[in-house]
Amino acid sequence: MLMSRLGDLRSLMQKHPMIPALRSYQDIDVILNASPRCVFILESSIDSLKDVVDRLRTKGHFVFVHADLVEGLKTDPSGIKFLVRHISPDGIISTHKNVLEIARDLNILTILRIFLLDSQAFKKGKHLAYSMNPDFVEILPGISVISVEEAILKEIPFPLIAGGLIKTKEQVNKILSRGVLAVSTSEKSLWQ
């Protein structure tokens, strides 16, 4: 079942490569009536998260929750089990291997966020990705993808998402032309 959902999500990302990165309730209202796509919930609180996820999923969106940024949720095994079993997102985003391993064990999609700050950070992120085999790797800041050699990006054999500091359609097009599957952004003007 996980492989089927993964295939469906990859097809959806190819059709709609812009991933709205939601940070507020106003953001949710903006995306509710959009055609189904992948959506990231970056900032939330445990008391309202279920309602947000349910509203988005009812409209056909694939919903990923950044577990590290949920106010009131501890990212220990019990916290992640609670998130998966009671909030029911389609997937989890994290920078932490243990969080994503728990999510994977619970049969949920995973996105590992790595930082492309310098060659050492990239090496560490690449090693982490290889050690846990996430469904996707999100590179931050996404704008850095434009200036990195394509050979370096190909060192990560997982579908790539770029996120962070992306403000224009021109930047999005350049990033996507580098073999990146999708771009996440909180810039509402790019969500169409």
Question: Mind explaining what this structure looks like?
Answer:
With 192 residues, this protein is α/β, with parallel strands linked by helices. The chain has a single domain (2-190), classed as Alpha-Beta Barrel (TIM Barrel). The chain has eight helices and ten strands. It has helices at 2-15, 25-32, 49-58, 77-87, 97-105, 119-132, 150-153, 169-176, and strands at 18-22, 38-41, 44-45, 62-66, 70-71, 91-94, 109-115, 136-140, 160-163, 182-185. The strands form two sheets. An eight-stranded parallel barrel has the order 1-2-4-6-7-8-9-10, surrounded by six helices. Helix 7 (150-153) links the parallel strand 8 and strand 9. Helix 4 crosses helix 5. The radius of gyration is 15 Å and the shape is globular. The protein starts with a helix and ends in a 7-residue tail after the last strand. The model has no long low-confidence stretch (mean pLDDT 95).
Number of E-type strands: 10
Query: CATH-wise, what's the superfamily?
Result: Aldolase class I
Distance between the termini: 29 Å
- The count of domains is 1
Jot down its keywords.
alpha/beta, 192 residues, TIM Barrel, two-stranded parallel sheet
Quickly describe the structure:
The chain is built from 8 helices and 10 strands. It has 192 residues and is α/β, with parallel strands linked by helices.
Topology:
Blueprint: H1 2-15, E1 18-22, H2 25-32, E2 38-41, E3 44-45, H3 49-58, E4 62-66, E5 70-71, H4 77-87, E6 91-94, H5 97-105, E7 109-115, H6 119-132, E8 136-140, H7 150-153, E9 160-163, H8 169-176, E10 182-185
Parallel strand pairs: 1-2, 1-10, 2-4, 3-5, 4-6, 6-7, 7-8, 8-9, 9-10
Helix pairs in contact: 4-5
